[in-house]
Predict the structure.
Amino acid sequence: MQGYLTIGEEVHPLSIHPAPGGGYRLPNGKPIALRARGGRTQVEVGEAAHDLEIAVSGGSVWIHMDGRAHQVLWLDAVDYHAQESRSAQDGTVRAPMPGAVVSLLVQAGDTVGTGDAVMVIESMKLETTIRASRAGVVEGVLVGAGETFERGAVLVEIGEGA
Amino acid sequence: MTGFPFASVLVVNRGEIAARILRTVRGLGLRGLLIAHEIDGLTPALELADDVRLVSGTTPVAAFLDINQILATARAMGAEAIHPGYGFLSENAAFARAVEDADIVWIGPAPETIELMGDKVRARAFVGERGFPLAPSATEDDAPATFTERARALGAPLLLKPSAGGGGKGMRIVRDIAQLDDELTRARSEALRYFGDGRLFAERYIESPRHIEVQVLGDAHGDVVHLFERECSLQRRFQKIIEEAPSPALTEPERDEICAAAAGIARACRYRGAGTVEFIRDEGGFYFLEMNTRLQVEHPVTEMITGLDLVAEQLRVAAGHPLSFSQGEVRREGHAIEARIYAEDPARDFTPSTGPILRLRPPIGEGVRFDAGVLEGGQVSAAFDPMLAKLVVHGSDRAQALARARNALGELVVLGVTTNVAYLRRLLADLDVTAGRMHTGLIAEKPELAADVPLDPGALEALIAAAALSLPDVRGAADAIPDLQAAMGAWRN
């Protein structure tokens, strides 16, 4: 196996193999191929063929197929397992959406309980309260009032404390 | 000879509306000028403008609100007229006045009109005094000490709005009257932050109303026409998502009545330029909501059914020309629908998404218009509103317009950033929507439409295959195997 593909919320193990006579096949034996046809791209899986548009950016493959766009995220096996073990017991509070900081409710050194409000952010004209992901001591607040951030940005780090 | 007393128009805006305005400005033989913020990178507006100057600020939005900087830039560029688009400074009377004081033509209504309609309390009083219908309400200004009490007396559900507000910002619904105090505190804090003015007013919240608005156009000589209505009942958190014209809900006598009321309100305030009178409508009738003293996001649906170019009409009015047609000459043909394309993820509670525009292929076809604010190769940041583009379609009737909209949404390719395109397509196939049974709460009642539709096994396999074959790492890992097999084969022989 070469790694995992995430499509939407689902994770799919991925492995493709060289096919006899050239090209590749899926583990179930179906031959697969990508072809350019008259300015369009087609993927063939066994007997089936689908028109699509593909754009690759790093480990992200964007595919438009049957009137829908999909983001397919690729993680090789090593990175995938490293990420799995990191996510448990995480004191890192990340931005659930891009936005801006309205007000900070804690500072480094404060003791917080799970679910305590740590800051108020604004996104899409709405205020949202960001809460502590675990109990502990605030090790750092990584954004200032008024600052903007992207989704997934680290907002607050919470440590175990002394 | 252009027939305009100004030779250039500076667009004080960005995104799709900046490009849309510049297209008309240049089509009329005028110079199109633009301000831009560097975070937007390459945009359609940038490609259309004859001259561009960058503006900056503590945040990108602040740059577009900085009156002094914008006026200095306008003077430096030799701008002879300013078009504010929508949002930003478009309904800022101080800006309109400063533009006029700088001897630059303001493409919009008189500053006094902006002030009157911008103050929701004064606007309601103005409209009510002239006999147009209003929903029951309580205003803080009338007697601040008794405001909470009067709001409570209206009963739940209530809608709290900033007196100085607009565009859905800072509005809160109170369903449980016991929470009124908390909600008032919240609403006041938001009103202060958005508008620098914490005054509120409370209005009976009408459950499941339709949002129907009427496009009006007035000239500098007191003449006003309406350009029929638009229905914008498909909203999420007070933000319109789908707009159409005509409204499938109105009979002809109802249409005449609501359009005449809108034109009457515009005439009463000597409205100059393009504006929109918004109403809510339920079984009991229609009520004045507010008047927007600018070009609306959804103006293209009106253009599609009337054949008019509203920006061109705005420019002619600003040039002092009388309206070139009478009410009786305004024609209406077919049905138009607009869908707003947002960078957001419906499956994750519509959180805004950001990223590069790796691929953008607009839909084409009869009756299809695509007003884009981004280009392939551009970037979507969190700095501004997440609207990327507007898809507008026209059909001979509503059913054809809906079908064309669904087809066009299926053809539209946006890769690199998550969008609501598939969601819009599902929404336009919903049975209540296709039947015209819409109200402003409909989208909230159908959260299941926001979920990603599961992939069938064949499609899933195709996606996995296409992704795997597009990733050099995956092909590389697979290619490593034949060498090994070949080596083993050689050894075995």
